[in-house]
């Protein structure tokens, strides 16, 4: 049996005066012990809702979830001691220092004063926060908050760790640092379920990826399996001017084996092809005849973004902008 197992989870929110939202719509998940699973999905896909159900913060409308064979809904008090959670928004006390925040978590978990302080110190070092340990968190940068929050989730050395978008808002260097920490936790036996909007992050970290959209899993596999499911190479062209987009799409249609995809700014056009080099040569020849100016042209292997596009017909970018429009309303 998998360490974390969820079957058919549903959760519907019914905001006053608005249509009901099916945040989870029959979600299945399974995470073997000692592995990293990524839930990959755009804004509003149901990632946070899934994490909240598994960490006993909300009760699903239907479906079951177990961790280590323990029912999450029926026995939340037995679940809480074995899990750690770092939510999407850092949950820290602004007025306490980094050290005090961690010590407080230790006390809340009844570690005892001495053990609690020792663990806080250990985590401060692990997360490279020594300089900031005696500063109140309100003066911390976003990346520092993220780290102190994750450290808080590790105070009790949980068997399974839930990380909701652990690197959103981090700069590239801090992101790499966070990835290293997550990998080292797993090498020591921790099981990790993380959510992410970054295809690269899932690709880098996860043994298994569940792509979710609309509260359910729409694809599952390793990064390689998901990429293979989209098949073949891509020919990708960067145009000097979007005036040439239509002509380029027309040419790519001729040589591709699927409908060409156009980026939001209309300057990048991509198509899946059977034989990459040959297709690229033919495409370039035709574009030259039509005087289409290129910044860049090349072949590439499919990315997880292509997987998402194939599965949903939308890019993750488009989904993001739909959501921000939604929020602006
Ligand atoms: N308390 C709530 N009341 C009403 N609707 C909610 C509530 N919580 C979540 N939702 C809705 O449920 C859907 C899923 O939300 P959720 O927070 O799980 O998405 P997410 O995948 O974590 O998105 P993000 O990437 O933006 O964090 C969204 O449409 C959201 O608006
Ligand atoms: Mg979320």
UniProtKB/TrEMBL annotation:
InterPro entries given in the database record: AAA+_ATPase, ABC_transporter-like_ATP-bd, ABC_transporter-like_CS, ABC_transporter_ATP-binding, DrrA, DrrA1/2-like_C, P-loop_NTPase
Record keyword tRNA-binding present: no
GO terms for cellular component: plasma membrane
Single Gene Ontology BP annotation: daunorubicin transport
Coiled-coil residue spans: none
Membrane-related topology note: Peripheral membrane protein
Compartments, record wording: Cell membrane
Molecular functions per Gene Ontology: ATP binding; ATP hydrolysis activity
Keywords from the named record: Antibiotic resistance, ATP-binding, Cell membrane, Membrane, Nucleotide-binding, Translocase, Transport
Start and end residues of each ABC transporter domain: 4-239
A matching Pfam family: DrrA1-3_C
Entry's family note: Belongs to the ABC transporter superfamily. Drug exporter-1 (DrugE1) (TC 3.A.1.105) family.
Record protein name field: ATP-binding cassette domain-containing protein
């Amino acid at each position: 049996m998998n360490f974390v197992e969820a079957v058919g989870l549903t959760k519907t929110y019914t905001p006053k005066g608005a249509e009901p939202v099916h945040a989870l719509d029959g979600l299945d998940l399974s995470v073997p012990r000692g592995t990293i699973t990524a839930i990959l999905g755009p804004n509003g896909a149901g990632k946070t809702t899934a994490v909240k159900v598994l960490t006993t913060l909300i009760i699903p409308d239907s479906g079951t979830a177990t961790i280590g064979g323990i029912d999450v809904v029926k026995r939340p008090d037995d679940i809480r001691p074995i899990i750690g959670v770092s939510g999407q928004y850092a949950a820290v006390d602004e007025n306490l220092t980094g050290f005090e925040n961690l010590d407080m978590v230790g006390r809340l978990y009844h570690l005892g004063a001495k053990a609690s302080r020792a663990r806080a110190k250990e985590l401060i070092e692990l997360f490279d926060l020594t300089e900031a340990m005696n500063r109140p968190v309100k003066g911390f940068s976003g990346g520092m908050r993220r780290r102190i929050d994750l450290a808080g989730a590790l105070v009790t050395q949980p068997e399974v760790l839930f990380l909701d978008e652990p690197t959103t808002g981090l700069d590239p260097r801090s992101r790499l640092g966070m990835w290293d920490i997550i990998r080292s936790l797993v090498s020591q036996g921790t099981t990790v379920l993380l959510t992410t909007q970054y295809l690269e992050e899932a690709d880098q970290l996860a043994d298994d990826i569940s792509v979710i959209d609309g509260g359910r899993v729409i694809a599952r596999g390793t990064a390689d399996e998901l990429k293979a499911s989209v098949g073949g190479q891509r020919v990708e062209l960067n145009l000097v001017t979007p005036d040439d987009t239509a002509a380029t799409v027309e040419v790519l249609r001729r040589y591709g084996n699927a409908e060409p995809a156009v980026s939001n700014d209309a300057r990048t056009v991509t198509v899946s092809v059977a034989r990459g080099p040959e297709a690229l040569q033919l495409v370039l020849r035709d574009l030259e005849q039509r005087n289409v100016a290129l910044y860049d042209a090349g072949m590439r292997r499919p990315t997880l973004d292509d997987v998402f596009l194939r599965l949903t017909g939308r890019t993750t970018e488009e989904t993001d902008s739909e959501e921000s429009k939604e929020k602006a309303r």
